[in-house]
Write a structure and sequence with these properties.
The protein has 22 helices and 21 strands. The chain has 781 residues and is an alpha+beta fold. The strands form five sheets. The chain has an eight-stranded antiparallel beta sheet. Strands 5, 6, 7, 8, 11 and 12 form a six-stranded antiparallel beta sheet that branches. Strand 3 and strand 4 form a beta hairpin. Helix 3 runs antiparallel to helix 6, helix 8 runs antiparallel to helix 20 and helix 15 crosses helix 16.
Length: 781
Amino acid sequence: MSRAPLSRPPLWRAIIALAAIALSLYIALTQSARLGLDLRGGTQIVLETRDSPTVKADAASTDRALEVLRQRVDALGVSEPGIARSGEKRIIVELPGVQDPRKAAEVIGRTAQLTVHPVTGATADQGSAMPDADGARTLPDPDQPGNHLKLGPTALTGEGVANAEAVLDQQSLSGWLVSLDFREGAGDTWAKITSDAACAPQGAPERRVVITLDNKIISAPGVTADVRCGTGITGGSTQISGGFGRAEARELAALVKGGALPVPLDVVEQRTVGPTLGADAIEASTKAALIGIALTALFITVVYRLLGALASLALALYGLISYAALVALGATLTLPGLAGFVLAIGMAVDANVLVFERAREEYLGTRSKDLAKPVKTGFAKAWSAVIDSNVTTLLAAGLLFFFATGPVKGFGVTLCIGVLASMLTALVITRALADFAVARSFVRKRPGLTGIASTGRVRTWLSRRNPNLVRHRRRWLGVSALLVAVAFAGILIRGLDLGVEFTGGRLVEYSTSRSVDADTARNAVSDAGFPRAVVQESGDGDITVRTEKLTDDEQQRVKAALEKPGGTVTVERDEQIGPSLGSELRQKALLALGIAVAAQLIYLSVRFRWTLAAAAVSAMVHDVLLVVGLFAWLGRPVDSVFLAALLTVIGYSVNDTVVVFDRVREVRRRDPRGDLENTANHAVVQTLPRTVNTGMGALFILTALAVLGGDSLADFSVALIAGVLVGIASTVFTAVPIAIALEHRNPPPPPARDRCAAKEVPDGYPLEAGRKKERGTGAVV
């Protein structure tokens, strides 16, 4: 026989794996991902409705405003726009390819109350521009500067317009007109207005009809001589002329067609990304991702040999499945989301490493000739740790989805998809591949080929050194307290450099044709009248200028000032956040962090004893403080991308600790009366190979992102690298010592004797398989 018979569970896993791969391949080949504005360039505008004298700003009025905006944006001809309500009073408008946010905001945010009036006379006096109860008013004549037209009561509003379209003037073939089609009844009103006007003498102001938009005359055409008094212009349509260009005619048509907004709108956030910056980000991130994945795959192949090579294949399939899920769900891929996609690969590696290390332990404990048994037991025993560690990450990613906005929300989406896909690939696809491989007679005769028959360098070193890592736990806690004090000192002394999202204001990134250092740029901006502006040089050589308030005209002054030393200056990125939104985002960030801590504590309390949950959360808070303190000392910005990194650190920190505590739980179930310190030390020593190997896999990816991923991902990657390193250390030197202290103060209830007697030790466990345990350490010798 060349192979062992394939049992039913592996067959089902193989079927599920093949179905998932086939479906993902089909989706990937037939559909493309929707790129966020930070990757393809464009403008995002967040509008907030406010109360008018007659209409309250609520969900219903915001929905009506959204439909008006949708028609306006559609009429502007923007390709693949996105319009959605956020909360009760906010509307997010995404305009791919639009690089003039000021003009876009002006067009889509105008109240656009279109009215039509007869003219009752002309005057040189300004009069009152405020309308009477019937709409009568006096407004400047756009055709005769210094003259004002007296408008009669409103005869027609934009509600009577069925359609508006920009058309080329067929007479001049150079100008543009706006063609209006009236609704039923409104056409008769238009005929009545023009009929009355045609009765006035030629040249008289009463022969004109005025069309206003937002209390401003946009057109005041005179009724031509061929229109008969008492008949007017019939047919239910007309044309507005006013020397329009094509863009102006399209904008006016969009405003008229969309109708009036039911409530006023304020711009609370505005972001613009140039197409070059987005293309560069995609190229840099893709290169970093490919290099990081290749290094990670090479690493696990070297460490785990055949099973590592199969896991590398599963990682490639993970990428396919994650991408297909992203496309199928219609999620938007943003730059932080791309980083989350890559980061989830490290978590897929973690699941594989957990399984392979458990399989190694089982094989070394039994030396069974049947390789299928340790592989099966490895997957079974790693299951709880894989689930718990991934759920903690999903909790953090879910908070990003609910509390973050824009690109960072995309990070939460892709991280959630990536974590779920990583569990599928590790527990189903890798399992199916491993089952198939160990069933081959060629592999069964060469157990060293699989990688589970070798001890591994880390495990060999631990067995030889036999360390007691918890003996000096008070010393480790002292070091942790000292590091937290240093972090607090950085926060208090240096302060946090809050990004524009949290402070409000405006941030503009400029690229220059000539190299300009930060000092030169800072002096140029100061001389332009902005001495308090924060001017920095990005890693890509661009110049960023951040101020509390900067109008569009002032932004042009800054640009002109930078042109002197920098030559040609291009706006690559423009972000504007209102002060109210900045304050709200700060509160949301703190709320997200607070909920993250509470959610982890609740989940871990359910899965473990509250003492272990409190220890894990304490170590997590320790990690967060150290990362925040590091950024304070380095003077790096604390923005929404940093918040995403921080919540990821929370998930990773708890992930690492859960693996150790899962082993503690397993040992204590078999030996409830065992010495706690020995149990804890044994858990740390046994899981340390997994911790080191997983950390190495994540660091390969993060280092590639930090070095090659461009300036946009540099701070994000640095925060995560710091979080990974601190998380590895805090699991051993902070979480475990705190857990021991809490367990000593709050011991669990003593187990029932009959339950203890009924406990059976599973076959193959290293400590109970004829190997001896050194008293006081719990390490395998």
